Amino acid sequence: MQSVNFRVSRDAAGRMLGDAAGLRTLLSFVETQQRARGMDIATRIHLDIAEAIVDAHIEELTEPGLSRAAAEALRTDPRCRVVVAALHYVATRDCPPYVVGAREPDDLEMLRWATGLAQAACPVG
User: Fold this and answer.
1) What is the C-alpha separation between 54 and 51, in angstroms, rounded?
2) Which among 9, 43, 7 is positioned nearest to 26, based on CA atoms?
3) What is the pTM of this model?
4) Which tens digits make up the pLDDT trace of 10-25?
5) Domain count of the chain?
6) Stretch 31-52: mean pLDDT, rounded?
7) Exposed e or buried b per residue across 29-54, where buried means at least 16 C-beta atoms within 10 angstroms of its C-beta
8) Is 102 in a helix, a strand, or coil?
9) pLDDT, greater one: 77 or 117
10) Containing domain of residue 99, as a range?
């Protein structure tokens, strides 16, 4: 996604990847916000996938005895970063676009794109 708003979310996601508490807060906020707005089934499915990816990331981050190398790999995981960025984007989408007249993707478009990228990067086997 080339949206200026998404680039802001991607940068924020890069800062959040090592922060389990911050990621939990983001998940809770997005879930509460989406429930308040009302969700169609497609958005719910992609939100569930995104949440599962971030939950697994949090679990790995908080694993006892996590080595420095493993922690650094988690903080720079591009698969999780794109999903966290999409969740951040969804949480902040009501902000006005930075580019006048630019069409911003809606929540479902963003979640579908991010979860599709993350799923494509999953190892098969």
Assistant:
1) 5
2) 9
3) 0.76
4) 899 999 999 999 999 9
5) 1
6) 84
7) ebeeebeeeebeeebeebbebbeebb
8) coil
9) 77
10) 4-120
